[in-house]
Amino acid sequence: MADSKNFRSLPTAIETDNNAVFEVVEKSILGLWEVVNNLTALRPPKRARYRVTIFGSARMEPDSDLYEVVKQLAGELTLMGCDIVTGGGPGLMQAANEGSVLADPDDQVKSIGIRVDLKQEQEPNPFVEEAYCHRTFFSRLHHFVLMSDAFIVMPGGIGTTLEALMIWQLLQVRKLDQTPFILVGTMWQGLMDWAETHMLDGKTPMIDPADITIPHCVNRYEDAIAILKTSHHHWQQLKAKA
C-alpha cells in the first residue's frame, strides 16, 4: 500500500494547471448563479399587506427636519395598512422604521429592515421588527425588489442613488411593472434634468422619451402618499379578485 504521506503529496492536474483551476472555479460560479436565477424566478406568495420600501440617507440625524418628515411619511403609510421596508440602518432608514412602529401600537403591520454587512452598521436600528442581513449589495438590492410593491426615494448619497437607479432601470426594461417609483425632494429634479439633457436631448438619444416619465418626481411627501393611495387601492382590488 502506498504511503499516505506520499499519496497526499502527489500533484494533480488541477493543482499544477492554473488554467484548469480557473475553469473549475468559473464553471462552479456560473452554476451557482444559474441556481440563483432559477430560484428567483419563483415569485413569492401573495402578501397579506402592501409593502413600501423607503430609501434614504444613513447620515441624517434624528433632530433634523427631514428625519421628522420621513417619520410622518412612514406613519401615514402604516395607518393605510402598509408594511414599511428600509435598509435597516440609521438616518432616514431609522426614521421610516420608527414612524412605522409609533403608528402601529397594536402591531398590525411590519417594520422591516434589509441590511448589508458593513463595519459602520453592525446592528439594525432599534425600530426594525423583522430583520434580514446580506453579505453583498447585489443580493440585498434583489431582495428589495422581491419584497416591495412600491419604492419611495428620499434624499441620500451614493448608496441611495444606486438604489434609485437600479429600480429605474428595472422599470425601464419591464422587469418590474406597475410599481410606483417616487423621488421625493428637490435634489432629484437635478438628476432628472441631467438625464433629459444628456441622455434624451442629444443628437442621438440614448433613452426613450417614456423612460423620463417612469419616476414620479415630487417635492412633498404628501404628494407621494397621494400616488400610493391610488396604487394601494388598485392592489387591494386585485387581491380581492385573486
UniProtKB/TrEMBL annotation:
The record's listing under InterPro entries reads:
LOG_fam (IPR031100), LOG_family_nucleotidases (IPR052341)
> A single GO CC term, please?
cytosol
Enumerate the Pfam families for this protein.
Lysine_decarbox (PF03641)
The membrane-spanning stretches of this chain are none
Q: What is this protein called?
A: LOG family protein
Q: What is the lineage of its organism?
A: Bacteria, Bacillati, Cyanobacteriota, Cyanophyceae, Nodosilineales
